[in-house]
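Hi W., the dinuclear copper ion complex you wanted:
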Amino acid sequence: MFSRLLSRLGLFAAPLFALVAAGCSKADLTVRQSTLDPKGPVAQMQYDVFMDTVWLVVVLFVLVGGLLVYAVVRFRSRPGETAAPIVEEGHGNPLVEIGLITASIGALVFIAVPTLSAIWYTDDVPAESVPKSKLSAWYGQPLDKAVAEQVLEIDVIGKQWWFRFEYPQLGLTNDAKHSVPNEMVIPKGVAVRINLRSEDVIHSFWIPKIAGKVDLMPGRKNRMWIQADQVGHYYGQCAEFCGDSHAYMLFRVEVLEPADFAKWVAAQKADAAPVAAGSKAEQGKNLFAAKSCVMCHNVGGHFGAGAFGPDLTHLASRKSLAGAWLDNRDPKAQRALEQTSPLGTEASVPVDRATFKANLIKWIGSSGIAAGADGQPTKDVKPGNRMHYYKMFNVAGLRETHQKLTADELDALAEYLLTLK
Ligand code: CUA
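Structure:
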C-alpha cells in the first residue's frame, strides 16, 4: 500500500524534479535575461540574498517534510489492526514550543540581515565604489557642465513604450538634442548612478544580469546604481505593467571599455552625415519631412523640431528597433556566436543591413499606415504605440492621419534611416 503511494507520488514528482533540475542546470544560465548569472556587484548582492533564502527554505522543507514522512510511515495503520483510539490532546511541551519560536526568530533574522544590508547597499553608490578620478579627467574632454561629482549619472526616462537615456554631465540630453533611446551605453567596471523618471505611467527598470528592478514613478524621483564588470551586450526589460505594449518595452545595455566609452560619447554629439543628392535616401529624407515623422523625431543636422519620440540621429548604429523589440542583427549569426564566444549571450554580432531594413519597413509600415498584400491594414508591431496613434496630440490636422505609405515610400524611408550611423 505504502510503496504504491510512493510510486504514485514519484509519477508526479519526477517531471517536477526534472523541471527544477533543468532550471538549475549550467546550460540554462546562458539565457539572456538570467538573474542567476550576475555580471556586476549589485546583481551579485541580489543573487546572494536570493541564495540565502533558497538554502534556508531547503533546510525547512527537508525538516518539515522529513517529519511528515516519518509520522506517516511510523504511525500508519497496519492490516488487521483495529483502529487505535485517538490520543487525547494535551498542552504540549513547553521546551519544544520555546524552541520552535526561537528557531522561527532565528530564521527571520537569517533572512533579514542580508536583505536589509542589500537594500542599503543597492540604494546609492557606496563610498568604496566611487571612482578615484573626476569625470572630466577621465573623459579627457571638456564637459558641458562643471562636474564636481565623480560618479557618472544617467537619467532614465520611461515612456509608453520605450526608454530614453540622458547623460546630463556629458551634454547628452533631450534638450541638447542628443538623447539616447533604448540602448544605454556604460563604461565597464565603473559605478553609475541611475536616476529613474517617468513621463506617463509607472514603468520598472530591470537588467537581470546587472541589477534590478526599481520602478519609474510619475512625479517621483527614484534612484539606484549599477556596475557591469564584463564588456558586452546586455538585455533589459520594463518590469511593471504599463499598458498595451508593456511586453514589448525592452532595452539594451552596451558595456564598453572606458576608452571606447569616451569615443562613443564624442560620436553621439556628431550630426548625421548629409545624404547623397538624387539618391533613394534623399527621397526618404524628403518623405521624413513630408509625412510628419519630423514632428516627433530629431535627426541632428537634418531636422531639429522633434523631441517627443526617440532621437534618430544615430539610429543605424543601434542593434535593435522599436523599443529594442526588433533585433537588427542576423539571428542565425547571433545564435552561433552566443554558443561559441566565451562572452556567452553578451557577445554580439554587428547589425545586419538586410535584417535592419526589413525591420524598419515592418515597423514603419505597421499599424494600418501601410496596406498589406491583401489590401488590409498591416498588423501592429507594438499595439497602441504612439508612433502610429497620433490622436493623443489632439492636433486637429493630425487626427486619424493614417497615411498610406506605398512599398516604394517605405523603401525610401528605410534607405534614409539606414544612413543615420
Ligand atoms: Cu513600461 Cu511596462
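The longest helix spans residues 41-74.

W.
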